[in-house]
Amino acid sequence: YRDGKVSSKSIYNNGRCIHSISYFNNDVMSSQCSISDSLVYKTDYYKNGNVERKSIAKYDKDKDVTAQKYDLMSLYYENGILKQEFYIGLNPIKIKKQYNDSGLVIHQKYNVTDDIGIETDFYNSGKLKSEQVVLQNSYKTIGLQYIEWFENEKPKRFEVYGLYQINWLSNGEFYSCYRYKNNNPNLDKPLRIFDKHNFSYKEIVKV
Description:
Shape: elongated
Largest sheet: 17 strands, antiparallel
Number of helices: 0
Distance between the termini: 61 Å
Structural class: mainly beta
Helix content: under 10%
Order of helices and strands: EEEEEEEEEEEEEEEEE
Radius of gyration: 24 Å
């Protein structure tokens, strides 16, 4: 830096950087990176010294080191609590988790194949909120199931995309049943509904 403080340090081997450290202008480390064989280990820090992100990535030694594929990444809140982690195990298994600032899991996605995953959401209290099977980049594929619960653990919604949807009240009482027309999973399209108040079918058309 202009005031004479060190901004970065690097160690080279055969013309390649194998270890580097960067600093904030308050002398606190901002990041460090080490390269071993075909793996890159990197840690980023907040200005208060707590870890912001850790990652392990692979790269092809015959290519530029910036062409990386991450195997593991962990993100942290500024207070040091884990915020999110992404892990690629034995392909094609992939696991992604997100935490609230109390350290409880609020979102999790587990890929069992390259295309199919199980996605789960939780309330901030840690109680189960919803679970669904998803295809890669598609959340409303016809035939896939979605289940949702109230925070009191009573069922809220059960849906088979493109076919039907059942809803309950928070006291556990049945509320309504939707049947999709033309196997269309988009809720803004015309539907048929059965509701507990009049026990009859009626058309609902988007206004």
